[in-house]
Amino acid sequence: MFFNRNPTKKIVRKIVPNLYYFAEFPMLDCNMYVLVDESSGKFCLIDTGNGKSLSGFKKSIHEIGLNMENLASIIITHEHLDHILGLYSILEENDISSLNIYVAPFTNQILKQGNEQRICPRELGISADVFGVKIKPLTNLIEVHEGETINFGSFTLDVLETPGHSKGSITLFDKSHKILFPGDVVFPQGSFGRYDFPGGDLQKLKLSIKRLSDLQAEILCSGHMSPVLQNAALQIQLSYRNISSLTY
Question: Which CATH architecture has domain 12-244?
């Protein structure tokens, strides 16, 4: 596991050629993943962190020869604050008029409303101001649905709707590379996402993890914890066995 001993910069590691992992900061942040298109020099970002960690991400991407001007696309796995607040910071700090932002329909609805309560529920006892973020309505986002694909560089990401941790959770699966990006649906070592947040549902989460456990994933790139670089399917199957033992 990678530990970040320099909280001003995100740890970066190559997973496979043109795929990089940027480790989460402590306290309500998430892992961020970068897909690089070698032909154009552009990159796609999966999840954006909590906003406050964006400066650490911007410092780290220089290590792989990129900067924010190279950002072409963003994919959001779900609507929780530790995954989407960074989107506001990116749009505030960078003039990227041609940026493609992919979100699930439920996440799109929330972002269009710009309602802070939907993004930072009162139950968490925390506001966007803590992260230096101002929430406002966002438009011109691209909705993605079950069965669609997002192509970027050498990666072809199948979109799977996987609710349970949240209503708008989606998972991305690249069959050719056998890489899974499940957001917070499932984690390494037999663990899985919480279902007691607003919009969570234990039974739906069980079904979503069962679905992911049937895939032939080799690499697991979750929203938290370090990536699994081999035999990921076995760990997802363990997560399914663990969650199957739970009842309301």
Answer: 4-Layer Sandwich (3.60)
